[in-house]
């Protein structure tokens, strides 16, 4: 039996960040990973998608060539080169994480780890124990329960990221974060994209007005949306759904992407340790991210709280701080998120819709990209920002879409952590000309 200070199951953003930080705090750590280090985010999620998204952005800029005075432009789009660049980005970052995990206090065990009991984990024939254990096993794509099994192969986001050819047409089931990012990317690549979504509007996390404007923008770019449409079957001919008028419709497509959410990756062997979980909501944790066994923690997608890489990383720091007896002021309740479509969208805190639904008193201050000097100079006039404040002025949230929306939202997240008011934000000097003035001008209203 190998004994150490901390065992970590899973080397995604939650697991590797916990290992790195714990090692710096002087703990000896053993981290288990059955696949590549980096988890979903690096290997089949955020990073490869953002690499594709950058190619999409370049293609969209090329389409504006005459606006920028570049005439008679002639080019060929090489999808194999797009794949190669994506693979290079992923492998270089993976090498970086492997270096990080080569710290003298960290041992990386390549293999699947399983609980034998509440103190023992086994992997590749060895047994390990530690006074603290972190579960960071991530999530898996959900699939739709249809009456009949799909009559043709259906891709998930990992499959679409490793596709070796550019499909002529693509039907995406689900207009959530994954569905919208892939719709934007593949539309820019020249694929005919159709999105089928059950709800009235896309991206339920976003303010409805902003989500609608973003959807309309993608529609203008060529994406077809069928909203309030529930998929009933996947046949050899395509995706069958009932549209909002109750009519059965079929969308023929070369490829079908299922993007109807992700589920926590839980295992039967968690019960050997007494760790409670459900398949749908993941490992049960309290506000300190302790499972039903207090010295076993669950961080990242597996606890089903906030399925975002940066949430997993900050949960990791928070848990290690508890283990080493440090206090911190990490605000896990202020969790910014971004959707890397063209244009980008992002949000933090409460939306105007939620304020209305929950009867929360609020003030909504809006501003627009078209009124910002830098946005016009960049030829990026599209975008809107809503800053939500309490009647006393404290900032409660901000939702936006437009070029670099994520960077603007990041500033709001920082200010919310310090209980800043809209008036205080308006009084902070912002560089001119920058997109950040969009935020300042909302605050000034
Ligand atoms: P999601 O939960 O964001 O969206 C799934 C969508 O599928 C929903 O809008 C839902 O109404 C729709 N849907 C469900 N059943 C349907 C049916 N029968 N027919 C049509 N539509 C149906 O899930 P998504 O997009 O798969 O993303 C999974 C997770 O990954 C999310 O938690 C997300 O936050 C995370 N993620 C984050 C990214 C980022 O931060 N930029 C990028 C990609 C994923």
SSE map:
Blueprint: E1 2-3, E2 6-9, H1 13-24, E3 29-33, H2 39-44, H3 46-63, H4 79-100, E4 106-110, E5 114-115, E6 120-123, E7 126-129, E8 132-135, E9 139-141, H5 157-161, E10 169-173, H6 177-189, E11 192-196, H7 208-221, E12 224-226, E13 230-234, E14 239-242, E15 248-251, E16 255-258, E17 262-264, E18 277-278, E19 282-283, E20 296-298, H8 309-323, E21 337-339, E22 345-349, H9 352-358, E23 363-368, H10 373-377, E24 383-389, E25 395-402, H11 405-417, H12 422-426, H13 436-444
Parallel strand pairs: 1-7, 2-3, 2-8, 3-4, 8-20, 10-11, 10-16, 11-12
Antiparallel strand pairs: 5-6, 6-7, 9-17, 13-14, 14-15, 18-19, 21-22, 22-25, 23-24, 24-25
Helix pairs in contact: 1-8, 3-4, 3-6
CATH class of the largest domain: Alpha Beta
Radius of gyration (CA) equals 23 Å
How much strand content do the residues show? Answer: 15-25%
Sketch the major β-sheet: 5 strands, parallel
Please, how many domains? 3
Would you tell me which CATH topology of the largest domain applies? FAD/NAD(P)-binding domain
Mean pLDDT over all positions: 97
